[in-house]
Backbone:
């Protein structure tokens, strides 16, 4: 679908990069939950542009307004509409690029699919669309935390060739992540990452990276085999985020180089429940959560829009040189952290509501 995610907790996003507003409609949120705009704003503040020299200078405050579904600070069980105005759009920056598809961007594919496209800022393919995901994810996250004590924390694991040290999945917190501008909990690696991002920015280039994420206190039993396995739903969610090119859970591709005797997670009694001594499975076995932390990684490519001159072709096939204008991130991964958290919350919320419905019905 081009606009809807989820089955019980359903989210529709709307808006383009340079239109009047962007946002989301959330259907399926339980009634009776306390909800204020401040519950949503904190995650939008972490996602918004203009946070510093390492991000795009586009100066958007991204203030959210709840239009419906909440009265006197309590959810009604009806659709919750969320809106964020675009205040600092510069569509004129893209006039020179109207006839030239940006290399590795969605300009050409959107034109091929629809016969028309939003040429300013990339339209729906812009990361601006993710505002609705983050806002909706904040609602899901509040429910997950209050009802189940579930914690979701994402961080920048690498930028280019620079990676952070081992992460303590049981104890990493968002305050630890946000202690550095690049959102990596390893201070030494964070400094090197920041220097690399500043270097490629000054060279009018871009760089990619990897975001890691852990979901703690998730109960065992979540996931809908065989086609809606937990890791399949997470992969679907993560690879729907702009600029993503890879997903792996637990040991991921590294596990393919191990033997079963080393890779298996032996069971052990843990505080009244069955747990595992290791977690190469990433908290998921047979497509179902096993009660261990769900741990995965998402790869983001370098942003496609760069100011360096590129030899390419125009839509009509003639040779062209593109020197992109506009305001763009030299690296998306620091701002992608709350997006990954939001999409994780949407997946877990939908699967938990499915599980609750199953218990009630049977």
Residues:
């Amino acid at each position: 679908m081009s606009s809807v995610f989820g089955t019980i907790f359903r989210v529709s996003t709307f808006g383009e990069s340079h239109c009047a507003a962007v946002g989301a409609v959330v259907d399926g949120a339980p009634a009776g939950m306390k909800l204020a705009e401040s519950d949503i704003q904190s995650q939008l503040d972490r996602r918004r542009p203009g946070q510093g020299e390492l991000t795009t200078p586009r100066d958007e405050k991204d203030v959210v307004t709840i239009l419906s579904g909440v009265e006197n600070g309590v959810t009604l069980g009806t659709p919750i509409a969320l809106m964020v105005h675009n205040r600092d759009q510069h569509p004129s920056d893209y006039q020179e690029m109207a006839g030239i598809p940006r290399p590795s961007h969605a300009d050409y594919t959107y034109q091929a699919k629809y016969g028309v496209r939003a040429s300013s800022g990339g339209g729906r393919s812009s990361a601006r669309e993710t505002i609705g995901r983050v806002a909706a994810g904040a609602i899901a996250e509040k429910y997950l935390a209050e009802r189940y004590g579930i914690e979701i924390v994402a961080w920048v694991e690498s930028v280019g060739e620079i990676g952070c040290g081992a992460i303590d999945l049981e104890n990493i917190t968002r305050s630890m992540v946000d202690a550095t501008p690049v959102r990596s909990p390893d201070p030494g690696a964070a400094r090197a990452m920041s220097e690399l991002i500043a270097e490629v920015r000054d060279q009018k280039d871009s760089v990619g990276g990897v975001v890691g994420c852990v979901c703690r206190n998730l109960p065992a039993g979540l996931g809908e085999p065989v086609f809606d396995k937990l890791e399949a739903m997470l992969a679907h969610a993560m690879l729907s985020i702009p600029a993503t090119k890879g997903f792996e859970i637990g040991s991921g591709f590294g596990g393919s180089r191990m033997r079963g005797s080393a890779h298996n997670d032996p069971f052990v009694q843990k505080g009244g429940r069955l747990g595992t001594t290791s977690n190469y499975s990433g908290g998921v076995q047979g497509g179902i959560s096993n009660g261990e932390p769900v741990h995965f990684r998402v790869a983001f490519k370098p942003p496609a829009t760069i100011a360096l001159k590129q030899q390419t072709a125009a839509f009509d096939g003639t040779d062209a040189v593109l020197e992109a204008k506009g305001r763009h991130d030299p690296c998306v991964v620091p701002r992608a952290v709350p997006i990954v958290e939001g999409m994780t919350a949407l997946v877990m919320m939908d699967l938990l509501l499915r599980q609750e419905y199953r218990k009630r019905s049977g």
